[in-house]
Specification:
By secondary structure, the chain is of the alpha/beta class. The chain has a domain at 103-193 and 234-385: SGNH hydrolase (Rossmann fold). 48% of the residues lie in helices and 6% in strands. The chain contains 12 helices and 5 strands. A 5-stranded parallel β-sheet has the order 2-1-3-4-5, sandwiched between helices. β1, α4 (121-131) and β2 form a beta-alpha-beta unit. The termini are far apart.
Length: 386
């Protein structure tokens, strides 16, 4: 009985099988392998695109995590890239100073001479302004050790929405180190420093980047390039002894003028008033590196191992002092050319007194107070006139 049923079923299906073998021309009668192939390449392409998209998304997440964990760049704001190099910018972005707020906002642009770890300029200025009745003062101190006018310009430009009643510029000596390099390797944007090679390349992404991956790839490429060509860059600590004789040519003067010009132009567009100062230094006639190390000179502290800054930190002493003098002439010239710019000739007012200096450029407590007193002689009349 079961055998007969199987035979009848095979007999009923046989004609249909014969018709498919002969072909009827209908789409349903096409060979099965063709249908599979036609859908297969579309499926593979879709899977490839989805896989590629997933890889890009994962790479973007990894890039953001890298910048967040290592440098503190916000995960949701990859455009705040310069926080990685200038974390002090964040305090300004959070405070959002404007010309219309209730404060007299002051911005410090400079290097270690204005930093609170190397002197008391900021504290002394707060105290003196409060003594004269100006207690609604906020000081945003962006000055950092080893930085130059190039850093000052990049940081000021990055503060695109912030506005200040006064921008204080005090740079001049750190640029001298940039000259200790063969002429063919010197770059006006200081990219013969590995630091500026990186910062100059990535700075345009600040405030504009929507994704972290593009600038992360450039960051990795520059890092690899540095590893392979490290010998072509200026060292990050002391200048190379075999390059120090190149420092006699103050090529940094062009760069210094360009950076300061850019700050002044930007301040004019923003409506910020600028106070320029020449850079004060002191080197006794009997100066030598050995005497400095032995603390035989008439400096105050000569500082400690963590704050050890003889003139040789920037190059040959006579070359460093000559370069600072050239930079000071540029400051005097630009101050005279720009109407409304306040100017203090600190190099002249503080010249020749060991009581003001702990080393060739960092101030004692008395020096910090004198520096601020010189500054207020120019600033207070402008405040009172308002």
């Amino acid at each position: 009985m079961r055998l007969n049923i199987h035979r009848k079923e095979r007999t009923r299906l046989a004609p249909n099988l014969d018709n498919r073998a002969e072909g009827s021309g209908d789409a349903a009668d096409l060979p099965p392998h063709r249908t599979i192939c036609r859908g297969g390449w579309r499926t593979k392409l879709l899977l490839f695109l989805l896989s590629a998209l997933l890889c890009v998304v994962c790479a973007e997440v990894a890039a953001r995590a890298f910048w967040r964990l290592r440098y503190g760049v916000p995960l949701r704001h990859p455009d705040r890239l310069l926080y990685a190099f200038y974390p002090e910018l964040e305090q300004v972005d959070r405070a959002r100073p404007t010309h219309g707020d209730a404060f007299y906002d002051i911005l410090f642009l400079g290097a270690s001479t204005l930093h609170k770890d190397w002197g008391q300029v900021e504290q002394s200025l707060r105290e003196q302004l409060a003594y004269h009745g100006y207690r609604n003062v906020r000081i945003f101190n962006l000055a950092q050790s080893s930085q130059t006018s190039r850093d000052s310009w990049l940081k000021y430009a990055a503060l695109d929405e912030a506005r200040f009643e006064l921008v204080v510029f005090y740079d001049g000596i750190n640029e001298a180190r940039a000259n200790n390099v063969p002429p063919e390797q010197f770059r006006e944007d200081y990219t013969h420093y590995s630091w500026y090679k990186m910062v100059n390349t990535l700075a345009p992404y600040h405030g504009t980047a929507s994704f972290a991956l593009p600038y992360t790839l450039r960051y990795l490429a520059i890092g690899m390039q540095y590893v392979l060509t490290r010998h072509r860059y200026v060292p990050t600590n002391y200048p190379r002894k075999d390059w120090m004789h190149y420092g006699r040519d103050p090529r940094s003067a062009v760069s210094f003028k360009h950076n300061l010009d850019a700050i002044l132009d930007l301040a004019t567009r923003r409506g910020d008033r600028v106070l320029l100062m020449t850079f004060a230094t002191y080197a006794p006639k009997d100066y030598s590196l050995e005497a400095f190390k032995a603390k035989r000179l008439d400096y105050g502290l000569h500082y400690d191992a963590l704050h050890f800054t003889p003139l040789e930190m920037w190059g040959a002493p006579k070359h460093v002092l000559a370069t600072v003098a050239v930079h000071n002439d540029i400051v005097r010239s630009l101050a005279a050319q720009h109407a409304g710019v306040l100017f203090v000739d600190q190099a002249r007012l503080m010249a020749g007194s060991a009581r003001y200096f702990n080393d060739p450029c960092h101030f004692t407590v008395i020096g910090s107070a004198q520096f601020v007193e010189n500054l207020l002689e120019v600033l207070l009349p402008s405040l009172q006139s308002k």
